[in-house]
Design a protein that fits this description.
about 100 residues; mainly alpha
Amino acid sequence: MEEEKRTYRKYDKEFVVQAVKQVVDEGRKVSEVARALGVHENLLRRWKNQYIEDPTNAFPGKGHIKARDEEISRLRKELERSNRDRDILKKAVAIFSKIPQ
């Protein structure tokens, strides 16, 4: 059997924001707007939820991350570094405790 490669359509930020504003600001139904724009209803609902959660940073685009996600990434790196340092110190204690006095 041949595997079918799925192609995904890409939408620019302006298109997404305008679609969501039709639902949020104008009070139109998600199904109505989705049908008119040729977008799946679930996708438009997801965009709407993202927009409602954080209107200014809702759609950062590819390669851009939100400030919150950037902070999480920084903290994960810091935790990884601290864990690595701790493991080195544990090994050092184990080595030095084996040396006869």
